Amino acid sequence: MTQATQSFKDGFLWGGAVAANQLEGAFNEGGKGLSTADVSPNGIMHPPNFELGEHNLYHQGIDFYSKYKEDIALFAEMGFKAFRFSIAWTRIFPNGDEQTPNEEGLQFYDDVIAELHKHDIEPVITISHYEMPLGLVKNYGGWKNRQVVDFYERFANVLLDRYHDKVKYWMTFNEININLHAPFTGAGLYVENGEVSEQDIYQSIHHQFVASAKAVSYGHELRSDIQIGCMIASMITYPYSSKPEDMQKAMQQDRNTLFFSDVQARGYYPSYVKAMLEQKGITLQMEQDDEAILQAGTVDYIGFSYYMSFVATTDEELLKDSTGGNLLTGVKNPYLKATDWGWQIDPIGLRTVCNQLYDRYQKPLFIVENGMGAVDKLEDGDVVNDDYRIDYLRAHIEQMALAVRDGVDLIGYTSWGPIDLVSASTAELKKRYGYIYVDRDSEGNGSNRRIKKKSFDWYKRVIASNGQNLS
Question: What would be one Pfam family of this protein (predicted)?
Answer without folding.
Answer: Glyco_hydro_1
